Amino acid sequence: MKKYNLLSNDVIILVDCKNNQINYVACYDPDFKGFYEDENINLISDGLVFDKYFP
Which of 50, 43, 8 is nearest to 28 (CA)? Predict the structure, then answer.
């Protein structure tokens, strides 16, 4: 939490993704980019990125 200055709800989302083997998260908040990349979760932030992962 401290490394990325995350709120508790953000950490809950990360834990849920990791526990349920979710590899993709859609979000328009650019603050999450490094956070999810470090945890090997792909951040879908726009339509072009969506098309990359789901052609």
Answer: 43
Q: Which two tokens stand for residue 45?
A: 């932030």
Distances, alpha carbon 41 to alpha carbons 24, 27, in Å? 6, 12
Q: pTM for this structure?
A: 0.68
The one-letter amino acid code at 2 reads K
HEC secondary structure over the chain:
CCCCCCCHHHHHHHHHHHHCCCCEEECCCHHHHHHHHHCCCEEECCHHHHHHHCC
What is the per-residue pLDDT across 16-49, written as a single tens digit (0 to 9) for each?
Answer: 999 999 998 888 777 777 778 888 888 888 777 7
